[in-house]
Design a protein that fits this description.
about 160 residues, mainly beta, eleven-stranded antiparallel sheet, 1 helix, about 5% helix
Length: about 160
């Protein structure tokens, strides 16, 4: 569903007051973007950086910075959140930018790690991010980041 959102709006942070007053998209809104990408508006997570992986509850919209043993749907932060009382966009489909650990390689499965918000290609039992593969190695598009191909990724803490 395209509501006319322009790409620069994907980095916008909304307050609860803006959401409740109808001055921002509703929590859980899914926005189509260029090249088949999709984004979802969720509650923010304090200390989130652009490219951080989060797990989220699709019913409540509550997000948690992705970390080993995480469970839930997965998205990648489009904005840096400083408070859990804000709302922002997370990418759920397409080619996403992600924060990755040293040595991350292209064409690999992707796993949650002990470093909150970052992923790695080193196999960790139970921490596979399903529907997610590495498209590039670390440093593309920037230092400490890589591109991932995602299609509604999720974690169950039982996949390996």
């Amino acid at each position: 569903m395209d509501t006319g959102l322009i790409s620069s709006d994907l980095t916008k942070i909304y307050t609860a007051a803006q959401i409740s007053a109808g001055l921002a998209p509703a929590l859980g809104t899914i926005q189509a973007g260029a090249n088949g990408c999709e984004y979802i508006l969720l509650k923010g997570v304090a200390s989130t950086a652009v490219g951080d992986i989060v797990t989220y509850n699709s019913y409540s919209g509550v997000t948690v910075r992705g970390v080993a043993n995480g469970i839930g749907h997965v998205g990648f932060a489009m904005a840096a959140n400083t408070a859990a009382t804000t709302y922002s966009w997370y990418q759920i489909k397409g080619r996403a930018t992600a924060n990755v650990l040293t040595g991350f390689a292209a064409d690999k499965a992707v796993y949650l790690t002990g470093t909150a918000g970052s992923v790695d290609d080193a196999a960790v039992s139970g921490d596979l991010v399903a529907n997610c593969t590495s498209a590039t190695a670390i440093a593309t598009p920037a230092a400490g980041q890589a591109y991932l191909d995602i299609q509604y990724p999720y974690c169950t803490d039982s996949l390996s």
